[in-house]
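Forum > Structural Biology > Help requests

Title: Can anyone predict the 3D structure of Endonuclease/exonuclease/phosphatase domain-containing protein?

Hi all, first post here. I have the sequence for Endonuclease/exonuclease/phosphatase domain-containing protein but no way to get a structure on my laptop. I'd be grateful if someone could post the structure tokens.
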Amino acid sequence: MSYLLWNCQGLGSDLTVLALHGFIKKHRPSAVFLMETKMQNNRIDRLRCKMGFQNGYNVPPNGLAGGLSLWWDESINVDVAFSSENLIDTKVHGLSNGSYCRVSWIYGTPYREQKPAFWGWLGSQLCATNDPWLCGGDMNEFIWHFEKAGGVAASHSRPRHLLEFATKAELIDLGFSGPSFTWRGTRNTHFVQERIDRGLANAA
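Reply #1:
Sure, ran it for you. Structure tokens for Endonuclease/exonuclease/phosphatase domain-containing protein below:
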């Protein structure tokens, strides 16, 4: 069983759709979580069916920003317990062996002024559990200073919202393979790279 999580930054481009089709064909995920779809439900549902996923759950965008979409195939059952513009919290049941896992699909706020309130809310919404639990997505937040390159150096005294959340929820960083940074862009004429996408899981 594999999951694909991607901040697609809008599904309106033919190149983005082509890239998504390539990811799905290569990795054959049981579930796909898309962030920043910027697309209304009816268009996403048509695309989901075209990609071969019969089941889905959408959180529509707010105007021209945001939007979440979760797709899954016939190998699993997904129960959605809660959703918001930043979170789809689910229980995923594997049909082959009857196992289950809580999966929290997260899109962290990109706005600095909203981060304290958002991470405080997420910490109250997602509490530690003895059930198997995976959290993943674009957190829009890095933890350690070496997870950023370029631009203004990260202050060692800055709030570490993601680390505080993971510690309270008893979650472990799953690590990664491939490039060290998951986002790159320009800020105030400086080229910046950061690791802001990750997976976390508890011991179970």
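The mean pLDDT is 94. The helical segments are 14-27, 41-50, 115-125, 161-169.
Shout if anything looks off.
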